[in-house]
Amino acid sequence: MPTFRYKGYRTNGQETNGTLEADSLRTAREQLRQQEIMPSELTSDETQPPRGIVQRFRRRIQVAQLSLFTRRLATLLTANVPIHEALTALHEQEQHPELRSLLGRIRSRLSEGAPLARALADEPQVFRPSYVAMVAAGEASGALDSVLERLADFLERQEELRRTVTGALAYPLLMAVVGSGVMIFLLAFVIPKITGVFADNRTALPLLTVALLTISSLLRKGWWLLLLGGGGLLYGYGRLARRESFLAARDRWLLKLPLAGGLVQTLALARFARILSLMLGSGVPLLRALEISSEAVVNRSFRAVLAEARSAVVEGSSLSSVLSRSTLFPPLLTHLIAVGERSGTLEASLETAGQSFEREFTAATGRLMALLEPLLVLAMGLAVGLVVIAVLLPIFELNQLIR
Q1: 336-394 residue pLDDT tens
Q2: CA nearest neighbour of 381 among 371, 373, 369, 392
Q3: What is the rounded CA–CA span in Å between residue 189 and residue 304?
Q4: What is the distance between the alpha carbons of residues 104 and 134, in angstroms, rounded to a whole number?
Q5: What angle do CA 152, 153, 157 make, to 5 degrees?
Q6: Residue 52 and residue 74: Cα distance in Å, rounded?
Q7: 356 near 159, Cβ under 8 Å?
Q8: The CA-based dihedral angle spanning residues 346, 348, 352, 357, taken in that order and rounded to the nearest 10 degrees
């Protein structure tokens, strides 16, 4: 049974505080009323946020956990278990502390008479607007269990896509970190000791060796300047990131990158098609679905086009005709949308497009990583080779002088 903390005043004006156990927030208020206590604060222990950055990171609810919760709730509702009893069962068996706390808060709101969608909307850090809108549509249509099943499928596909990208990036990132660490160690500790011998002999050093010694000296003596400069860049970026004009320019620049730009565009298209299809299939009206889809697509260039499309749809234009005027939406997607609009199967057409773009993104990511890995190995080999040559050149010249 949840524990509630309260602060309040008795009928004689005396301030009081304490804890009590109750099934819900409403029951806790009723108990305080029977004790003739007027509460000024009444919160559940489960609603207390984690303290500290480390605790917040450890207790963060991941997409996989949210997907599992959605799947379990859908299963219980399909078995005709009442929503409050289903949440109570999930709350009692949940081991993750933050998710358990979240379920307790949602259950308390349901006990007070709030619908599930409104209870979820009070947790925006976990449940996005698309999730809440689909739950609201499912409640309105009486098909909440099937909507939750579709949501669980969608979240599982998103998690699978995220794992694919993470797995593809793991090896290149490891190579980059290890290679950078090796180069910093060589430049900061090894190179000065080896080449310092030739510098003490006052012999003319090759240009490559001099450049390497200069970089090594800057790294050893000016490391704090590098850290200060890096911190200044991060601070400046954080300040600029508060400006919408800078973020819009950054998103346009990302789409123009030689290799990554195509991946960003394909991922945005896949996410847009999947979310719009899911919401339309859950009973969300098209205008509301377009609004939420534009928020779910992170890139602001896509958001601008989708905002224009929504306004045009309000005026009576078709969605495909508006999107076809933008270079961000390829003919494959606009043609599928046009077919779906004419035949009344827009949801299925968008689902087909989303699957196509996801497969294209996965294949393109694999090709890029397959190309990037040997390039990283080559770059590391060249860097180490330059260091070796910079060390060996003075030795060769010294041998020539001895002869």
Answers
A1: 999 999 998 999 999 999 999 989 998 888 888 888 888 888 888 888 888 888 777 77
A2: 373
A3: 52
A4: 22
A5: 115
A6: 34
A7: no
A8: 50
